[in-house]
Design goal:
By secondary structure, the chain is an alpha/beta fold. Helix content is 36%, strand content 22%. The chain has one domain: Rossmann fold (3-Layer(aba) Sandwich), CATH 3.40.50.
Length: 179
């Protein structure tokens, strides 16, 4: 996996730096949200046709595709891995959703999040913590963030909801709303 070099410029080398680099590399690996859990994420955020959903680290595009298909909204997937982007673009075309979904092959730490009304995250807590200042400065009032499994450090969730996957595995969702 490709590291995120811009994150490391301001940090000194040492064991904390190495641990952070390892955590971010792990976060960049593809661990898809189960489909039933992804649907619960979008329902918890009360996604409607008026929303623009951003999925950071969108992997195979299941959340943007689900958002566009079932909730009728616009969606943006942000994914760094070129192979996953190629796969996702093929799925978007297969479902005829090119008008509703855009996919950006870029580093989500540098992405413009201002158009988002909903952000979905299935990233490690350390990564959510790195994203927190960017989300805080970019998100408009009323925007929602739904984090799967790992809360956003420094933010108090509006709701914490346990959910079950298709295979009856338990997960936790954290809903945040920008005031």
């Amino acid at each position: 996996m490709m590291p995120f070099p811009s994150l490391f410029r301001r940090h000194s080398r040492g064991s904390a730096f190495d641990a952070q680099r390892a955590a971010l590399r792990t976060a960049a690996e593809f661990y898809p949200a189960p489909l039933a859990v992804a649907r619960e994420m979008l329902e918890l955020a009360e996604v409607s046709a008026d929303d623009t959903v951003y999925d950071l680290g969108s992997g195979d595009g299941r959340i943007p595709i689900l958002a566009a298909q079932e909730f009728g909204c616009r969606a943006v997937g942000i994914e760094l891995d070129p192979k996953l982007c190629k796969y996702t673009l093929a799925r978007i075309a297969e479902y005829g959703l090119q008008e509703r979904i855009s996919l950006r092959q870029e580093n989500f730490f540098e992405a413009d999040l201002r158009p988002a009304t909903v952000i979905t995250l299935y990233l490690l807590g350390a990564v959510n913590g790195q994203l927190q200042p960017r989300m805080a400065s970019h998100l408009r009032s009323g925007a929602r963030v739904v984090a799967l499994e790992f809360p956003v450090p420094g933010w108090r969730p509006e709701r914490v909801v346990p959910v079950r996957s298709e295979n009856d595995v338990g997960y936790t969702l954290y809903l945040y709303r920008r005031r």
